[in-house]
Amino acid sequence: MEPEVTKEQRCHGHHRPLKMLIGLLLAVLLLTLSVSQIASWKTKFASPNVISVAGEGKSVGIPDVGLISLSVLSEKNTAKEVMQDNSAKMNDIIKFVKDNGVQDKDVQTSGYYLTPRYDFPNGNRVFRGYDLTSTLAVKIRNLDKISDIIDGAVTRGANQVGDIQFIIDDETKLKDEARDKAIAQAKDKAQQIAKGAGLTLGKIVSFSENDGMVYPQPLYMDKGISAGQGGGAAPAVEQGSQEIDINVTLGFELK
What we know:
Blueprint: H1 7-45, E1 49-61, E2 65-76, H2 79-99, E3 107-119, E4 126-140, H3 146-155, E5 160-167, H4 172-196, E6 201-214, E7 219-221, H5 223-226, E8 242-254
């Protein structure tokens, strides 16, 4: 005699194939979504082929501003005497410089050093007085006057003249010109690389820049030439030229 099948068991048996089918469909759907999602992630996070190329550009200009330092070295027995002597000479120099068209904003005291002076006879330290050196930094915008200003400052007590430099006051245009040349060179290199590799050059994805500058050799006048020997021919000073050098590195996509 076969066991009696209950109503619940019959229902359960009828629904089992349906549940298996639903489960299979869900599994296929999840697998499809996973593959699609993984492909999306790969597309989103895949690193493109990128090359980095360097370019250099240069531009040359004529300096239009001169920078000089004028120093007065005074030697006296007392601190009071040495400061009075130094101040008198430096004030005369400052007045002369400004009378020759140098603006107040272009004249600045850049150094002031007061030190005791000693001799050492027979190994013994003997106090001899004080030395005071004051230094004036001057920016001269009319380069035609630079030699006359140096000569006049020496006549008025400047016994150290040095660190003469020539600069371009506004370098913006020269830098723009050099940068354009550097970028053009980098793009040309990138095009050649892409063509050689059988690829297409894409967009720029990175950019960096370094700029450098070559100044004319500074002119230094030693104390033996300039110390209190003004009144002769003014020194000949040439500003030369100034070169701006800019290097860029560009990153390009390759397709």
